[in-house]
Structures are given as structure tokens and as C-alpha cells.
Amino acid sequence: MVLGVSGSGKSTVGTILAEALKIPFDDGDDFHPIENKEKMASGQPLNDQDRQPWLESMARHLAVQAKNRGGVLACSALKEIYRQTLGQYCHLPIQWVYLSGSRELLEQRLSNRQGHFFKPELLQTQLETMEPPRYAYNVDIAKPPKTIVSEIIENMNMKKSDLGLIGLGVMGKSLTLNLAHHDINVSAYNRSVLGEEHVAKDFASTNKHLTNLQVFDDLSSFVKTLISPRKIMLMVNAGPAVDHVIQDLLPFLEEGDIMIDGGNSHYHDTTRRIDLLNQHSIHFVGCGVSGGEEGALKGPSIMPGGDKEAVDAVLPYLKQIAARDQQGKACCTNIGLQGSGHFVKMVHNGIEYAEMQLIAEAYTVLREGAGLSIDEIAVIFKEWNQGELKSYLLEITADILMVKEGDVHLVELIYDAAQQKGTGGWSTTSALEVGAPFGTISEAVMARCLSALKATRVEASEHYGDYPKNPSENTETMIAELKVAYHAARVVNHAIGFEMIRTTSTEYRWDINLSELARIWTNGCIIRSSLMEQLVQEYSDNPSKHTLLIDSFIHQLKGERITLANTVAYSLQMGIAMPVFSAAINYLHGFTSEQSSAHIIQAQRDYFGSHTYKRKDRSLEDVFHTDWQQIVE
User: Fold this and answer.
1) Which of 248, 341, 347, 533 is in Cβ range 3.0-4.6 Å of 286 for a Cys bridge?
2) Model confidence over 356-387: pLDDT tens digits?
3) Which is it for strands 186-189 and 213-216: parallel, antiparallel or unpaired?
4) Does the active-site annotation cover 545?
5) Does 421 lie in the same domain as 305?
6) Among the options 352, 361, 538, 560, which is catalytic?
């Protein structure tokens, strides 16, 4: 179908195209009843009622042509509803070509045309009525007709992809292959710059057996292969790199196209980019992806957020490649508006930081406090992983402890300075922005920061010497109590993370469903666990309750709180740092204390800053100030 307003060259281009393809050509003007032609000849524009019989006639003709060997039809097809009518009887998809050009060129052509029933003064009406189709191949009519036809044929022969992906790093490659393995036509692009000259070519060569995969190092060629509205996933480093790619892409995109940022971008940046691209009528989706390289390839947990229209458009593809929960549902859901998708991924990573640190602390207690061998600890972690403590992180830690180089455990050879990519720190800052307690996660971040001071720690250990240790004589009891303490600390850590999400969701009116969020974190992601599966039902039954006020967790923690406190006390007395275990019991003690120490802080603030305070024996609407120094004097 060659479409455009009068004067765009539909008949000329259509005739040449039909000859080149050796199929019949039809001009939409020939299908107009005499009444329509007379009306236009008198200078009156057609209305929708006038056009309906004309459109129906062409629709039936297209259906006949589709059953034969096809054909080319030139028709204005100004509105989307007209194009839907034209295609209603076809059993094959129509390929649309939109001829567009400047008003000046169109007027010039119409003024040179003699003996046609269409009056040039009707051009304004057509231009106002035209709804350019996003899915059509758009051609500039300023080019010679034969050049236009060559470009149309080249585009028709070009294999089209449902989704594009930019950035063939570890995650980008794995996601691309995941898409291809799920029978999704995908185009991938990687820039050709110093150090990355062969990335695209090597990836294409390695995967040339995948007939639904196209790989490019030219951005323009990459974009041309995508079906409109284009859906392009960015898998590049968070920060300025994302903005650079957006600016590079913009000249090639059209209204209604969708960009999906699948990296670990800050959610404030995502909201900013959504607002920026809205000015260009282009959608932007911030999409958290968790699962590492293996998850990206075999099925990650995916967390898209942004415009509902845009998220709904990409969800079918994301759900196809996502992991599956126990009921077989995709671990992917629409998180909410603005940067909510990247926000929950950020908090996911914060929970992950604390979970990793808890396991590391438990390992240290077993190694230094109980004097167990690494092999013995591996067996303990494997046993713990069989029941309610089951988690992906505990599972892989047990595997890690079993790996040796000769007679030496590899883990003993690893330099003890933990690295981080920033999401843990971001989550801590974000908690401060909304006033959400974040102890276990912020302490996990600080533990990594402290570990990075390796040289300073070595010097300090020489000055301070070894801390006097008095290992427990009852190792079995100590291990059993550590297991209970680990369970309690994990519940508190998850509660802190999810309550941070609840607080922020309320602040920004994102309406995040905690039960649904926990569900998509039951598989594919790094923090998948038996506890996460329990949270799905708990949040479904108690959507508005604080996590630690849910009956089942109250029952568990009432029985485990003392054991958690004793384990932390024992470990500290042994000189073992327990930042996250300690943060968990501190949060639990503070959370369950009817009377806190904050009254002292409020009095202090009023003393030095006249910040005022409220009184328990008066209305909380009233505020008070005391001249403390004068009274004391």
C-alpha cells in the first residue's frame, strides 16, 4: 500500500513499484464513485460517510489480490481508521509505504497537474486530516521516483525484528540470546570503537546459526530493521553512557517508539529521562533485571516501570524471557510509574548486599568462633539450605567453599576487599530521602567500604594485636543458635527492604504491590529464597501491615530474638565483627520498644537549637521550648 496526501506521487511510485515487482497496480482514485469525484471537483472535501463505500470497495479488492499474487495499491489512507478498514478482509499483512514531503513541494506538484478532479485548495484539508502511520516505511518524496522505489524494495527485502538491543556486554549478549532462543526476532547493536571493534562481528559469527538474530555495528542500519513502533533495550553502563546512547538514537526514532533501559540506572535518572523523551513523544521504560549472566540467559527476574502504555507494549517480550515462579507465571510484572522499576531493583540489590554479608558473618563465626574447617562449614550451609533457610546465595556459598586449588581452598586465596557497583549506596541515600530505617543494608554497604581499607586494616591489626578469644566448648549448641539467629536476621533484613519500598511507593504514589513484587523475586533473581516465597502470601493476606507486625513473623521473632542477641554478644566478645547481625537485633530492639531514647535527643535539640519538642502529657498538636540553661543555672 502506497499512501500519502494528493501530490505525493503515489500513482507514479506505485506504478514503477508494481512493474519492478511484476504484480498488478491499482490507483485508489479509480475506486471512487462518481459522486465523490464530482464533490471533490467542485472544491468540497469528502467526509467519512463519503469515504466508507470507497474504502470498502478497495478492502474487498485487496483481499482478492492477497489471495492471488499480491498487488500495489495507491491510496491516500489519511486516517488510522481508514487503514484498518482497508486491511479488514486481508489474510496476509499489508506492507505500508508512506510518501511524505514539504507543503511547498506538494503545492508545486498539484499546481502543475492538469485535468485532475482533485482541487489544489483541498490539500490543506488532507494535511490536517493525515495521521502518519508509525508502522509504515517513510520515504521523502523529494527523491527521484526510481530511487524511492529502490529504497522501498530494499526495505521490503530487509528482515524485520520485533525488538532491538544495544550493548553486547556480558548481560547484553545473554539477554539477546535469551530473546532469540524464545523465537523473538531480535536485532543487536554494539558500537565499533577502540577496544570494541570486533564485538558485534564476533557475536554474529558465533551465533550465525540463529536465523532470527541480526547483529550490527552501524546504528542506522540497526534501527531500520525494527518494526514500528520500535522497541529498543539499552544494556549499557548506568550514568552518562545511557544519556549518550539516547542522544545518538534520537535522530533515528519516531513518535511512539520505546526505549527500555535494562541497566542499573538510578531511579531519579530514569524519571528525568522519561520526562525528557516525553517531549519528543517517545516512551522510556526503566527496567530492573536481576539474575546475573546465567539468569539473563536462562530467565531473569524483570522489573519494568514507566508509562503504562509503554510497559504494556514491551511486557509480552519481557515475560517470554523471564524466569517462572512455582505456578509457571513469568517473574515479570509492571512495577508502576516513573522510575519505580529501577527503584525496586536498587532495593533488591540492597537486600542482596545484606544477605551476602550475613552469610559472610555466619561463616566467620563458624570458622573463628567455633574453629570449624571450611569443609565442615560447607556441609553446614548445605544442610541449612534444605529447609526454611533455603536461598540462592546460601546455595552458591556452599559451592564456593568446596572449590580447591590443590590442597588449598580457593576462597582462602581471595583478597578480602569487597567491591560494589553503587546500588547499595544509592539505596541507603534513598532511604534517608524518605526517612526509612535501613540499618542492615546500610551496615552491609559500610562493611564493604571498611573491607576496602585493606592496608590500613593490616597496620591496625599489628598495633592492636589479636583479640582474646574464648571459643565455646559446646560447638553443637553454638551452631544451632547461629542458625536461629541467621533466620531472625534475614527476616528483619527483608522487612527493612520491603518497608523501604512501601514508604517510597507511598511518597511517589507508585502503588507498588508488595505481594506481586515478592512473587517475581521467587525465581530468576539473586535474592530468591524460601523466605521470599513466604512473603508472597504474607503480603497478599496483609497488604497494609508492617512486615514485622504480621502474626507469623511476630511468632517467629518472639522466640528467636534472645538467641539473635546472644549470638551477636558472643561473637563480639570473640572479636568478630557482626555489623549486619548487630543491625538486625538493634532494629528489632528499637522497633519493639514502647519507650525509645528519642526523648533525650529531642531535649538536646531544644537545648542547643531551640528546635522545640512535644509532650506526652499534652496534645501532640502543641509544641514547647524550654530555656534549659537558665533553669540549670
Assistant:
1) 341
2) 999 999 999 999 999 999 999 999 999 999 98
3) parallel
4) no
5) no
6) 352
